[in-house]
Design goal:
Elements: H1 15-23, E1 24-25, E2 30-31, H2 36-53, E3 57-60, E4 63-66, H3 75-86, H4 93-100, H5 104-117, E5 121-124, E6 128-131, E7 136-140, E8 143-147, H6 149-162, H7 169-180, H8 184-187, H9 192-201, H10 206-219, E9 235-236, H11 238-242, H12 245-249, H13 252-263, E10 266-269, E11 277-281, H14 283-296, E12 297-298, H15 300-309, H16 321-331, H17 337-341, H18 344-355, E13 363-365, H19 366-383, H20 388-405, H21 418-437, H22 440-443, H23 450-460, H24 470-474, H25 476-496, H26 499-513, H27 529-541, E14 548-552, E15 556-558, E16 561-563, E17 568-572, H28 619-636, E18 637-642, E19 650-651, E20 657-658, E21 663-669
Parallel strand pairs: 9-10, 11-17
Antiparallel strand pairs: 1-2, 3-4, 5-6, 7-8, 10-11, 12-14, 13-21, 14-17, 15-16, 18-21, 19-20
Helix pairs in contact: 1-2, 1-7, 2-3, 2-5, 2-7, 2-10, 4-10, 7-10, 15-20, 18-19, 19-25, 20-21, 25-27, 25-28, 26-27, 26-28
């Protein structure tokens, strides 16, 4: 039974929690336009103010000193108290803000996690946060109210600013800190009188004024703070690069891991006839990009030319900031596990239909077979039509565009050859089919698909999502079929090449599919435990995107290396999959890594779906579809690898996939298909 309002225990918020809630911008899923250094100073100011309110520290014009060394029980601020206590000399507030500001990111992470635990915020994939849509009770200064936490705080602040109510010291501090971050202008309509009222409030409390002035002083420094002493980025000699064994087998993940071991987490490669390539590699790079990349890195520049190929501008992969968050939220239902779970019967139907074309004794190209099997399901579910006859042309055109404009491996004229122009016309055929299949009469009684979501968004805001972007948007199912199909080909190889694991997966498959058509409840963690851990290990060893490219939009320093504005950065998040200090014996296929006793994936070193704001939107859909497909294939067929002695090598561009030499042989049909 749901808790009633009387059952909810009142809770108090700390000043750091209140500040974070005030600064949160739901349109972007992150903070209002507060530069990283400014935000760090304000957060440390809030933590010091919290210690003051709890009578642990005090300030005077010249110093900050300890009143009580007893910990508060709040780890977010107790480490600050301990550091102040252990400092032999007294310093002023400004000194402590400057000294502690680099550690503010840890506090922000802790506060956000705590607000999620308290069900005040909801966390979304890609490190986005929004306010939880539930009532929440707080007890602040013996005043109990029922509202969302952010509304409660903003109401208090609004009353103090606009209704001339006398604020208590906590509200004064919050107002001071928000004002120093220059964020009120994003929240309220301000006039001269209101700004004067805010300035007056900021002078009401001694500790608040002291801390706010110290923060403000730090924020008043140069807008462009140049990094101090930084290390020179090491360069990988081309001769040594070409001698790496993983250059020959195409395993870029392992290649980058080996280079990071020799040269550190930041290194440079200078290929002939092109610009230098700077790489960020390793778990610390993953952590930094995931948490703080939005402050410094941008996707739009490197993706701009690729967009033009499709006549589009502002596609999901190229957007940053508020527009990216808005489009991501709008499309998340289309890529959700729940939407696929509600259409499992259709998934089975399309999978059975494709598998009926597989003949015992025949061999099939691993990549083509798996792409076609996945596309036979994704196209009807995503865009409501069959695209098998268009698939090869559309994929070759897309891959050529990626090779020209993203990987920069081919000259631009190769995209305008007669063959490529012919393949480009398949986009027009695709658009025509989608439009014909999405009239009101055609869609009546059918579940929503990705096209429906795009069309609704286009109708509601054609400026945000113009018609010119729909050509690329509707080809998303084909692009997903490439990536998911290539992943599936590596999964099938891993299963077919390891007989002991194959048998365990087959046993789970027979349990799931042996008693009729299973519903979503059949795919419980315990029912497919081996299959689930097997797929996780496949995603570790064979992630198909070896790197992503970003441009530095704000100069920053990572691990002592300066990344200057406009630098093109190559991030290799999956290189850590082959680092032995994270995954012991990384070249060994070991599904026991994911048992509770080991949990080797519980670190920033495991990143098969990307990082940060551009983390794969369809992760949960993909995990379910992969599991269903590998279990179906194991239940209905016995598959062998051909040639029998095949040693896995990769074709890494534009995405990782097995070489064309790999084929799958249908050696036995174990059960009758339910076509």
């Amino acid at each position: 039974m749901a808790d009633t309002a009387k059952d909810v225990k009142p809770q108090s918020l700390t000043l750091t929690q209140e500040l974070i809630l005030m600064l949160l911008n739901e349109e972007t899923g992150y903070f209002h336009q507060v530069p990283g250094w400014d935000l760090n100073c304000a957060v440390i100011g809030a933590a010091l103010a919290e210690l003051s309110i709890r009578s642990r520290i005090d300030t005077d014009p010249g110093s900050l000193f300890v009143l009580d060394q007893t910990p508060t029980g709040n780890s977010t601020i107790d480490f600050i108290l301990e550091e102040i206590v252990n400092e032999p000399n007294q310093h002023n507030t400004q000194y402590w803000i400057e000294r502690l500001a680099p550690r503010a990111e840890t506090i922000i992470d802790s506060v956000l996690d705590r607000l999620v635990e308290m069900k005040i915020l909801e966390h979304h994939d890609g490190e986005f946060w929004t306010l939880a849509r539930t009532d929440w009770k707080m007890e602040l200064n013996n005043d109990v109210d029922s509202s969302t936490a952010s509304q409660f705080i903003r109401t208090r602040i609004s009353r103090a600013i606009f209704m001339n109510e006398i604020p208590d010291p906590r509200d004064v501090i919050v107002i001071c800190l928000v004002n120093t971050c220059d964020v009120f202008r994003f929240m309220f309509q301000l006039d001269d009188e209101t700004e004067q009222r805010i300035e007056l409030i900021c002078k009401m409390d001694v500790i608040g004024r002291s801390i706010a002035e110290a923060v403000s002083h730090k924020l008043a420094g140069p807008t462009l703070r140049r990094p101090g002493f930084t290390k020179k980025i090491p360069r990988v000699p081309l001769r040594k690069l070409m001698m790496q064994p993983h250059v020959r087998d195409g395993n870029l993940h392992a290649l980058f891991a080996d280079l990071a071991q020799d040269y550190g987490p930041v290194f440079e490669i200078r290929p002939p006839f092109t610009r230098p390539m700077v790489f960020l590699v390793g778990p610390e790079a993953n952590r930094w990009v995931h948490k703080h990349g939005r402050m410094y890195l941008s996707a739009k520049d490197y993706f701009r030319d690729f967009e033009k190929v499709y006549g589009a501008s502002g596609l999901l992969p190229s957007l940053d900031g508020a527009d990216h968050f808005r489009l991501r939220k709008s499309l998340s239902p289309a890529y959700s596990r729940g939407r696929l779970a509600g259409q499992l019967d259709k998934l089975y139907h399309h999978a059975w239909k494709y598998m009926a074309s597989l003949n015992v004794g025949d061999s099939y190209s691993a990549t083509s077979m798996c792409r076609q099997m996945i596309n036979a399901q994704l196209s009807p579910l995503f865009i409501g039509i069959d695209t098998q006859d268009l698939m090869d042309d559309l994929m070759q055109y897309k891959e050529r565009a990626l090779s020209v404009h993203i990987a920069r491996m081919l000259p631009e004229f190769t995209l305008n050859t007669p063959g490529m122009k012919r393949r480009a016309k398949s986009l027009d055929t695709l658009m025509k089919r989608v439009e014909e299949g999405h009239t009101p009469a055609q869609r009546a009684g059918k579940p929503r698909d990705l096209v429906d979501d795009y069309l609704s968004l286009h109708a509601s805001d054609p400026q945000f999502l113009p018609e010119a972007n729909l050509r690329f948007a509707f080809s998303a199912a084909l692009i997903a079929s490439v990536y998911l199909g290539d992943t599936f080909s590596l999964v099938v190889y891993a299963m077919a090449s390891q007989p002991a694991l194959y048998e365990k997966i087959r046993n789970e498959a027979d349990d799931v599919f042996g008693n009729g058509v299973p519903d979503i409840e059949a795919f419980t963690p315990s029912a497919i435990d081996v299959t689930h851990r097997f797929l996780m290990e496949c995603m570790r060893m064979y992630p198909i995107v070896p790197m992503s490219v970003r441009h530095v939009m704000n100069t920053c320093v990572f691990e002592g290396y300066e990344l200057p504005m406009r630098e093109r950065i190559h991030i290799a998040p999956t290189a850590s999959h082959y680092m032995s200090d994270i995954f012991p014996d990384p070249h060994s296929f070991d599904i026991d890594r994911y048992l509770p006793s080991r949990n080797e994936h519980r670190s920033p070193g495991y990143a098969p779906y990307g990082l940060g704001t551009h983390m794969c939107l369809g992760t949960r859909w993909m995990e379910l579809q992969l599991a269903v497909n590998v279990l179906m294939l194991a239940h209905y067929f016995k598959i062998d690898v051909s040639p029998a002695n095949y040693k896995l090598r990769f074709n890494p561009f534009p995405s990782m996939k097995p070489t064309k030499k790999l084929q799958f042989v249908i050696s036995e049909q174990r059960h009758e298909l339910q076509v």
